[in-house]
Amino acid sequence: MNECVLAADLGGTKIRTAAFMAGEAHFVSDRPTDLSAGRDGVMAALRAAIADCREQASTNGWAPVAVGVSCAGVIDPQQGLVVDATAAIPGWKGTRVAELLEQELGLPVAVENDVKAALLGELCRSPVYREGTTVMLALGTGLGGAIAIDGEILSGASQVAGHFGRTRLPSPWQSGKTLALEDLVSGTGLANIANHLAGANSFDNGRDVLSALRRGEAPGRAACERFCDFLLLALENIYWSLNPDRVLIGGGLVAAREDWWHLLEQKQAAAGLPLLLEPAGLGNDAGIYGAAALAHTHANTGVV
């Protein structure tokens, strides 16, 4: 029987799974993520998604030997433990993801932060990204990030290196207050900006704002302009603090980059920022490719 690994990417809106054979993804499948269900509900959905993928692989005559999981939060990969997390998934902090899945599946499980896994996927697919310093930003429901130096993911002393979304900056709306960068630079951040400019809670998420932009509505245009201002500010800080060779930008908002990427390029040119920006090549599949790489390493060496 041919051996394969299973990969799962737990995102803010969906769980994507796949079986990997010879580095290629098969049986790619998505199912919705109900974050409001909290830790137990999310873990149940994650187990079910992986079990379905395992069944498909087994039906095809493949034998899964390990599982890789990409998920939100500050992750201790040696323990497969969520060390810290935002309130997006109630009760997520402290979850022993690897242990719980191994008990259910009977397979070794490797777990990593979602953006670190996504960057690992990009490194595996594009050798040039393994040269020098590569930074990744993931513009999704929140803002994630990761750093790689000469092909190795930088974790930091407390596993928080690259968590740019958690950095603080002065609030543009309230004097004397601060907020997290991801409150401005993310899908949620785009909606926050639009609602502030409109003076009402008219937008539920970034998709709503982009739809308004496509319809030629002024609030959509103004919000995207301000969003790109804040994104450029984050990129300038990354340039001056890390001086990377390149920055990859991924996440759900990049799938709609035709609506706003040109605005970012215009602002970058006006600011004279000499930073190479590229859309992440694997798109929404980066997480599962990185998770598969983790699973392969874990299966072959026992090390995450």
Automatic annotation (TrEMBL):
Q: A Pfam family this protein belongs to?
A: ROK
Alphabetically sorted, this entry's keywords are: Carbohydrate metabolism, Kinase, Transferase
The EC number of this protein is 2.7.1.59
- Residues forming coiled coils: none
Primary enzyme class: transferase
Annotated Gene Ontology MF terms?
Answer: N-acetylglucosamine kinase activity
Q: Which segment of the chain is annotated as a signal peptide?
A: none
Q: Which Gene3D superfamilies match?
A: 3.30.420.40
> What family does the database annotate?
Belongs to the ROK (NagC/XylR) family.
> How is this protein named in the record?
N-acetyl-D-glucosamine kinase
